[in-house]
Write a structure and sequence with these properties.
- This protein is α/β, with parallel strands linked by helices.
- The chain has two domains: about 230 residues, Spore Coat Polysaccharide Biosynthesis Protein SpsA, Chain A, CATH 3.90.550.10; about 120 residues.
- The chain is about 55% helix and about 10% strand.
- The chain has an eight-stranded mixed beta sheet with strand order 7-5-6-4-1-2-3-8, sandwiched between helices.
- Helix 7 crosses helix 8.
- The longest helix is centred in the middle third of the chain and has 37 residues.
- The relative contact order is 0.12.
Length: about 375
């Protein structure tokens, strides 16, 4: 059995059309993310068409709406899987059913998240959406080493076993969907892609994605990592110049400056970039970090030497090497050095959520 979960903010009649098409297949759960009185008639029509509608009293973001929907589904249908779809008509009933079918078969081989992935061909997709997917797809591959076609799709299938874990994924807006992909493997879930139709209506005018604010939320971890690296470079350079001016000993100055900058970089990454300050013991994280730093130093020397030997100018070799190792360092620090300690599984995510959630109005 599967549930279709549709988060909605200020929807139009396309939501009602989708509910009408899906209701005969099984339960449809719609989360009204604080759309307000002006949209009450749309949600009433969706309920009349067969949906169960729960409402946030105020707008909290797509991630919060999804999290509420997952927990509501766990309360009502504890053993059911969940397929999420957007309310704006981008996902057809046929594709939603297809994702549900693949989810059922994939779960038999091991827990997996199923993505309904679009084809991003020029002309078929608005430029904003095409560029956004290329950037997030590249970021995902750089940080996980895995290749996905569509990291921004809202059509996704989740096994019942994932509902408790989904409550712990951070983010209340669009970054929530990207965060769950980044954390899926560490949580024990595979990712399976299913091709779906690429549908954009009116140039995706109905999307509530805010290019600047929401992109900043999605890319914040990498931006913080880059800022930390730049700060470490500045401290390393300044300390080298000062120590060499005072001591006149180059080797001591280089080593001491690197120890100082690396210690600062470790502290910043541990507490601000990866948020592992309260979960990873300092000694464990430090041992992993400085082991990685040593390996990266060896790799940097080897790559620069190899590139220089084939005629690549030193500066270009340095830039190419650092760019490559930057991505490697981010991925290893996120997945290994500061890997979060797994939280104990939530035996009954629905009941736990019901005890703590703010009241939701329900229409059936």
């Amino acid at each position: 059995m599967h549930i279709v979960l549709i988060p909605a903010f200020e929807p139009d009649a396309r939501l009602v059309d989708l509910v009408t098409a899906l209701a005969p297949d099984g339960p449809v759960l719609v989360v009204d993310d604080g759309s307000g009185p002006a949209f009450a008639s749309v949600f009433s029509a969706a309920a009349h068409a067969g949906a169960i509608v729960v409402s946030h009293p105020r707008n909290r973001g797509k991630g919060a709406a999804l999290r509420s929907g997952f927990a509501e589904a766990a309360c009502r249908w504890p053993s059911a899987s969940v397929v999420t779809a957007d309310a704006d008509g981008q996902h057809t009933a046929h594709d939603i059913r297809r994702v549900a079918e693949v989810l059922a078969s994939a779960d038999a081989e091991g827990p997996a998240i199923v993505l309904g992935s679009r084809t991003f061909l020029a002309g078929a997709v608005p430029l904003r959406s095409r560029v956004g997917n290329v950037v997030t797809r590249t970021l995902f591959r750089a940080t996980t080493g895995r290749r996905l076609t569509d990291t921004q799709t809202g059509l996704r299938g989740f096994p019942a076993a994932a509902l408790g874990w989904l409550q712990s994924v951070p983010g209340d807006r669009f970054e929530y969907e990207f965060a769950m992909l980044l954390r899926a493997r560490d949580a024990g879930f595979g990712i399976v892609e299913v091709p779906i139709a690429t549908v954009y209506l009116d140039g995706n005018a109905s999307s509530h994605f805010r290019p600047l604010a929401d992109s900043a939320r999605i890319y914040a971890p990498l931006a913080r990592f880059a800022a930390s690296a730049v700060l470490a470079f500045g401290i390393d350079t300044l300390a080298l110049l000062v120590l060499h001016a005072v001591t006149g000993v180059l080797l001591f100055s280089v080593v001491a400056a690197r120890v100082l900058s690396a210690s600062m970089n470790f502290a910043v990454n541990r507490s601000l970039v990866f948020g592992a300050g309260r979960t990873i013991p300092v000694r464990t994280a430090a041992a992993r970090y400085f082991s990685l730093a040593g390996l990266l130093l060896i790799a940097s020397y080897g790559l620069i030497t190899a590139l220089a030997d084939v005629g690549v100018p030193l500066l270009a070799a340095k830039i190419l090497t650092d760019a490559t190792l930057f991505a490697v360092s981010f991925a290893v620090q996120r997945a290994v050095v500061f890997a979060p300690v797994a939280a104990p599984p939530v035996a009954d995510p629905g009941r736990a959520y019901a005890a703590a959630r703010e009241p939701l109005s329900v229409r059936e």
